[in-house]
Amino acid sequence: MFQKDWFNVKSKATFATVLQKVTVLILLHLFLLGAGSSLAQKCNLSLRGKILHQENDNPIEAAYVMVMETRTGAASDANGNFIIRDLCPGTYTITVQYIGHKEIRTTLELTGSSINQTFRMMEESIGLEGVDVHGHRESVQTTTAVTSLYGETLLESRGESLGESLKRVAGVTTFSTGSTISKPVIHGLHSNRIMILNNGIRLEGQQWGAEHAPEIDPFLADEITVIKGAETVRFGPEAMGGVILVNPPSLPTSKQNQTDIHLLGGTNSRMGNISAAYTGGSEKIKGLGYRVQGSAKRAGNVRTPNYYQANTGMAEYNFSGSVGYSSQKLGAELYYSFFNTEIGILRDSHTGNLSDLQEIINNGEPFIKPDFTYEINNPKQVVSHHLAKVKTHYHLSPEWKINFQYGFQLNQRQEFDRRRGELNSRPSLDLELFTNTLDLFVDHTRKNTWSGSIGVNVIQQANSNVPGTGVTPLIPNYDMVNAGIYAMEKYLKGPLELEGGLRYDFRTVSAARFVGNELQEADLDYQNFSAFFGGRYQLSPYFSFTSNLGTAWRPPNINELFSQGLHHGAAAVEIGDPNMVSENSLKWVNGLEYESKKALIELTAYANRINNYIYLNPTGETFVSLRGTFNVYEYLQADAFFYGVDLSGSYSFTDQFSGYLKGSIIRARNIEENNYFPFIPSDRMDWGLSYQFGNKAQPNANRITLSNLLVAEQTREPDFDLAPAPPAYALFNLGYQRKIQLGDNSLNVGLQVTNLFNTEFKEYMNRFRYFTADMGRNLLIKLNYQF
């Protein structure tokens, strides 16, 4: 109980007020620190920038940038970024070196302001053994808010779903159905408003359902990037809320090999997880590389602090493989991934009659409290996803490159309900979604000043209900075609970076289904323009400012138009509206960043006006059938205004002792009704302290971290909900990470305890909060061996 008293849950306005004041004080302190530093030294200019591959704009890690006159320099990080501080005004000779690439030597003049410079390096054919040159990899350079998970941070997240991993990013939460199904939420938006790219291919699954998690294995990635702006110009209508890039490791183009093995175990649900990956390069064919990867996961009933949840086990089996070739002129890649999962749905979410439904909501926890088991029964869902792509690029000249990419996807979703007799073995929802995507675009770079692209994108989809379910399909069969053309341009000069873009999309949808003996058909067309303009300016050696203003749109999805029945996996009746129109938004994102040798602070503020925002609203009515009693939801539209603040930062008190802070505040108002929308994340703050034993440069470094997550009560509820929002909660987590060097190989050992004090809590963004508490204490043991 001390967690709730300490957090003061009775004060509903305290959390947001405290976080706002903390933000102001931190920024004021950093401003005075930066101003003081500038006054204390005359040589206060800096050179910062990014090192990229000329052939594909991928970041280069460990390139060295040298200022010849001062003999000072810096190496680029995993994102290609570097910074050299404490430079005096004057003219300098700059060299950029990276093994296997041509040296860059240029002259830059620093006057009264710092410079932000991008260097693109060209591969050079040299006969050295052990040169680590990598092939094509998808990356996005943008002036909007971007955060990446890689290295140790990504290693710590291994074994979690994609949605859970991304909660490490400020402003990103999850919309979940129990403890095993979660999908990412960026600035209050989720599902078809968030685009996920699997190795450059937009993931197309049945993501319209609240319990439809992304069909992707996080183990295939060595970097996961979150773009928190409207990116419809780059990717199309489904990117109006943000983009998530899941990037596998780059393929080698020289003789080398590496094996990665992950072994994980968890006490809660007695989870076991294994993943293995092998990467190799050809000795005979320079530029040829390949990678294979697979994983398996098994878990049983989830346990809250006081009881097991019935039928909450899961099983997952995944595979991915790729082969690629890269040279100075030509690059090509073949890629395939397979995702398969079986997930049990909390049995108590499917009630038998109206009185049972009311009683379990009033009770707040399940009446059925079984022992532990791995067995998965109905209700459940079985999902498989195939993705294949072929991509090639060709350099027309050192400045111009043409790119072609084709992707094919097959998504198969089956949802099973508790039914009588022979029907129990049949799925109640059985869908197959075929998707073909085609991208053709041209990139150009003009030395280090101009870069951009122009291209076309075509998407074709066919979704069908597989016969034999014995029920009227929730959504009709449909065919969809979307075609878009776009152009983007970026300008970089000194401390200033500007970019802009324009896109036009046209979409046609044809739907048909039988309701009884009556054939219902619909043919719909949608079209719209989207545009953005953004910039970044280096205010001083320590401060930088970014701003991005973009329009976006999204046509209504098929379920929002035509849902008319029981959605078994969600345990709810959903009613669509065929007269819905497209959503249109205008989002403005501003960011202020402070970076010094010891501190990194990022503040992001945004405002998003969405006309005709589509949301699923509880009606308060129930539907009674032979299969049980279910709440009724309907899709509605209203003008919305989303706005909020994200704050993240870290500070190194000493070489061994450091801390971090992440927080987010979001508000989402229904402008037409002057009330609030359902399922909007509440205010939250995550902070922690880490101690590094020894030195990071030591081969056997180890680190311990204690963190605390504070989540406020959601007081901005819609006019009607099935139950009041749960109270605020505070969770403590403990982590230990050790890296052991074994010759040329390395062993990473991790120990994590989530919900350290086994606190009982309910998350407002969990759809099953009406029926049960969230997961209790969980001890995770993680082993990673690289050789």
TrEMBL record:
Keywords in alphabetical order, please.
Cell outer membrane, Membrane, Receptor, Signal, TonB box, Transmembrane, Transmembrane beta strand, Transport
Pfam families associated with the record: CarbopepD_reg_2 (PF13715), Plug (PF07715), TonB_dep_Rec_b-barrel (PF00593)
Q: Which InterPro entries would you find in this protein's record?
A: Beta-barrel_TonB, Beta-barrel_TonB_sf, CarboxyPept-like_regulatory, Plug_dom, Plug_dom_sf, TonB-dep_rcpt-like
Q: How does it sit in the membrane?
A: Multi-pass membrane protein
Q: Which family does it belong to?
A: Belongs to the TonB-dependent receptor family.
Task: List the protein's name.
Answer: TonB-dependent receptor
In this protein, which residues make up the domain named TonB-dependent receptor plug? 141-243
What organism is listed for this UniProt entry?
A: Algoriphagus confluentis
**Keyword Transmembrane among UniProt keywords:** yes
